[in-house]
Amino acid sequence: MAPMALTSPMSPMSHHDSAAAxxxxxxxxxxxxxxAAVVRELVGAxxxxxxxxxxxxxxxxxxxxxxxPSASGEGPxxxxxxxxxxxxxxxxxxxxxRAEGAYGGVDALxxxxxxxxxxxxxxxxxxDEAFERVLDVNVRGTFHLxxxxxxxxxRGGRIVTFSSAAVALSVPGQAVYNASKAWGEVMTSLLAxxxxxxxxxxxxVAPGPTATGLFLSSRAPEAVAALAARTPMGRIGSPEDIxxxxxxxxxxxxxxxxxxxVSVDGGLV
Length: 269
Hints:
Layout (H helix, E strand, L loop, with lengths): L4 E4 L15 E5 L4 H13 L2 E6 L3 H10 L12 E5 L5 H15 L2 E6 L16 H25 E10 L2 H5 L5 H20 L6 E7 L5 H5 L3 H10 L8 H12 L10 E4 L5
Parallel strand pairs: 2-3, 2-5, 3-4, 5-6, 6-7, 7-8
Antiparallel strand pairs: 1-4
Helix pairs in contact: 1-9, 3-4, 4-6
């Protein structure tokens, strides 16, 4: 069954960055948290965005509403949501197909979709089901997305994947999650070299603790406060903090950064 698609009307282009006008981005995990902030950042820069979501239609619709222009314009929608599971290769192909069909091509991939096994669970107590889910989304899903992007992102394009400050912090009880994120760092760095000659950059963003709904709901307030106290900036990050760095990496100004893992954690690591 083909993924469900939701659309938001196109907005006028005059107030957007002319360098990004007409560029097209595929964003996964775009219905909430950092992914939703990335969608908003890119739409504000002038991108047309196709974002993937897994199940939550209401959250995907809310992202479309938040990016709806105050006045309708002519032409295709500026933002589109497509239901897709990154662990499923045909779903990933359809995401890119939808972007190419609606907008004529793809200039950027931002792979935000990820899952985490229960924090604090050591390897010896990690259940097969939790391991397989992390493997499916964070490893297999990232591979599907990078493979598709390598074949279909246009010359001069941008690829951004996500790791985590947790990899550098080496906190016990997160071995499966951290290993999956480290795998993505290596895969992205090597892809940057494989794409030599096409002027495409491929980088990884590694956020520190970030105030998404999922992060805040899974930790006690005192635990969040302790993380904020460890950060030189005196707080945890916001989704917008991370999205602005993604926006820079996708911009012309970020074009000389390639094959890197960029820490975005307020100095925590």
